[in-house]
Design a protein that fits this description.
mainly alpha
């Protein structure tokens, strides 16, 4: 096992500014997602967050000059209609997805967050520091979140936190930590560059969400969602180079 103390002593931990920035983005985007959900609905959040994969993909291609095969390129192109079709029938009572200022900010912020993760992984991290970096990012987000709660308590008299919110936060935090940690580790795999890792990650979310909705919540899969799942699987196969 790797000792965290030795990692701290022997590694160049020059990623601290990114830990603070990513932690700030974590908690800010989390709050923005809740606000956009209230104002525009779940579908708009899904579109904004999932379609933001365009930003880290383009960043990886331009900044790191990653090369794409024709099949990889086709897979990335298929990712976008697959993501849009996954939410086409969940946009609310009027049947339309409304895009405003906040969803655009969410789109840009989510894309910048993923691009930052790619940059830090490529430039600053090693296998030994991946877990530490992920933990520090969530610790940073906790500090920003706690400061926000305390500030609202002082200024508005809001309740700091009840037990239900505390348990819910832990339940959400553990899988979120795992998702960031394993995404960073995936980016360290030979041949797994950002232009493939981020679309595959988002396509996996689409497929898993569809399976959970059918098997657990007994939701009906529409024609659009069936086509979305088909395109998602095809995109994953092409981007994975299978």
């Amino acid at each position: 096992m790797v000792d965290s103390g030795s990692v701290l002593k022997n590694s160049r931990l020059d990623f601290w500014p990114y830990v603070i920035l990513i932690g700030f983005l974590f908690i800010t985007l989390f709050g923005l997602m809740a606000k956009v959900t209230q104002e525009y609905g779940v579908a708009v959040v899904s579109v904004a967050v999932k379609m933001s994969l365009a930003i880290p993909v383009v960043f990886s291609l331009v900044y790191f000059q990653e090369r794409l095969s024709i099949l990889n390129g086709v897979g990335i192109l298929l990712a976008f209609p697959a993501l849009l079709l996954s939410v086409v029938n969940t946009s609310g009572s009027n049947g339309r997805v409304q895009i405003g200022f906040m969803p655009i900010v969410l789109f840009i912020g989510s894309g910048i967050l993923d691009a930052l993760l790619k940059y830090v992984q490529q430039v600053h991290l090693t296998e030994e520091t991946s877990a530490l970096f992920s933990a520090l990012c969530f610790g940073s987000a906790f500090v920003f979140g706690a400061a926000t709660l305390i500030g609202r308590r002082i200024l508005k008299g809001d309740t700091l936190m009840d037990m239900r919110s505390f348990i819910g936060g832990i339940a959400l935090g553990i899988p979120n930590y795992g998702s960031i940690y394993f995404l960073v580790r995936a980016l360290q795999l030979p041949g797994m560059d950002g232009s493939r890792a981020f679309p595959i990650n988002n396509m996996g979310i689409v497929i898993l969400s569809a399976l959970v909705s059918v098997l657990i919540f007994k939701e009906k899969i529409t024609t659009a969602k069936r086509l979305s799942i088909f395109l998602a699987v095809t995109a994953i196969v092409l981007m994975s180079g299978v």
